[in-house]
Amino acid sequence: MKPHVELYPHSVLEAQVGAIVNAANSSLLGGGGVDGAIHRAAGPELLVACRKLHGCQTGEAKWTPAYLLTNSDGIIHTVGPIYHGTKDDEELLIACYRHSLDLAAQHGCFSVAFPGISTGVYGYPLSKAVIVSYNAVITWLKEHPENPINVYFCCFKDSEYQCYRNYIEGVKANGD
């Protein structure tokens, strides 16, 4: 089975996958944006489980069951960097994707859906985040052929979809 990477023009809450990724804050106790939406949809048991995880460091990832979410088996919570325009930002964002895929593989997932990590209130420029996230996922998949995970980049906004599409088409046109 060969993995594929696809754009999904919807929220992670709509993706039928083994795990969805939550762009969480370091407390893991819910927040705004996709984090708040996931917590509301998964129900109060998610908050109880997240309290037991005692937070999460930037670039790391932690797993919980999906609880009331019926479209996935688990939720991978990862904390993206607050953008400052440094090399550390890129390395931490790469770590979010790598650690999330590591957890998906550990839990036997054949598919995972990512939102735009750090592209909301954390201020990571979308065009830069697209390059980092796509390349991190492709690199992970090449390094782990024993884990053929299908990856979906969920693009809730049309601007996200267009940015990913333009970058991926450019990569393919260059033969990469």
Automatic annotation (TrEMBL):
<protein>
    <submittedName>
        <fullName>Macro domain-containing protein</fullName>
    </submittedName>
</protein>
<feature type="domain" description="Macro">
    <location>
        <begin position="1"/>
        <end position="172"/>
    </location>
</feature>
<dbReference type="InterPro" id="IPR043472">
    <property type="entry name" value="Macro_dom-like"/>
</dbReference>
<dbReference type="InterPro" id="IPR002589">
    <property type="entry name" value="Macro_dom"/>
</dbReference>
<dbReference type="Pfam" id="PF01661">
    <property type="entry name" value="Macro"/>
</dbReference>
